[in-house]
Automatic annotation (TrEMBL):
GO terms for biological process: carboxylic acid biosynthetic process. One of its GO terms (molecular function) is catalytic activity. CDD domains: PLPDE_IV. The keyword Magnesium does not apply. GO terms for cellular component: cytosol. Gene3D superfamilies: 3.30.470.10, D-amino Acid Aminotransferase, subunit A, domain 2. Keywords: Pyridoxal phosphate. Belongs to the class-IV pyridoxal-phosphate-dependent aminotransferase family. PANTHER family: AMINO-ACID AMINOTRANSFERASE, AMINODEOXYCHORISMATE LYASE. Its cofactor is pyridoxal 5'-phosphate. This is Unannotated protein.
Amino acid sequence: MTAQSMWLNGELVDDVSPAVFATDHGFLLGDGVFDTLAIRNGTPTFLDRHLRRLRAGVDRLLIADTPTDEELSAALFQLIEANGIDDARARITITPGPGSSPRDRGAQPLTVISTSPLHQAPPSVSLCTVQWTRNERSPLAGIKSTSWGENAAILRYALANGFDNAILCDSSGRLSECTTSNLYLVINERIVTPSLDSGCLPGVIREVLIDEQFVSEQDLMPSDLALATEIFITSSTTGVVPVHCVDERSYATPGHRTVAAIEMIKRLSSL
């Protein structure tokens, strides 16, 4: 594989170069945040929204002395030019850097921006429900934490059982989100998505759909899956993706409300 550049604390380096100290808190503790966005036609989509969400996570975890949003934006465009990128997946990762103990973070935060291929979204996906929950009371609820082992384990379970992703409920039994995506149900022609009170991530595509008054937030229960005529999921790198089944229940895809959501996001992504 040909090495590309990544942006590491202000410098462009080969993405095969060592980048993380063994004592980095992101590596040792999962203490850090990240954000992933799509680059299309050489332009990051919804960049301001992604940087705002990333900054909220940095502030929540009290990571000091990180690059400003303007510096991160400039670094991303520098990386796009250096790698000759047209379409790609970009990830911005920020950790407190190395530290001698969980109480001592050290003085030099780590910021890495890397790119990888942007894969085409599947025509539809299958979801399963699981017994594990999203802890809406967690200090990490609602941020893209690098502490991602729980999601990885649940996603592996779904894949091992023949599904593409898993639906999580919060600790009170409300629907929350999928491991890598926000969740939407079409009930009586209305598109509804779990509220942030359920501990779900404030996804950027979710935010856009709500701002456009195309989707509304609502407390949803697993029983509402039987009332839905369409279901779809969203993420920044795949956009809107129809769901053709949840467990043993099938849904026609793509439904007309899902198609309208797909078209809206495609249009707004190109602005």
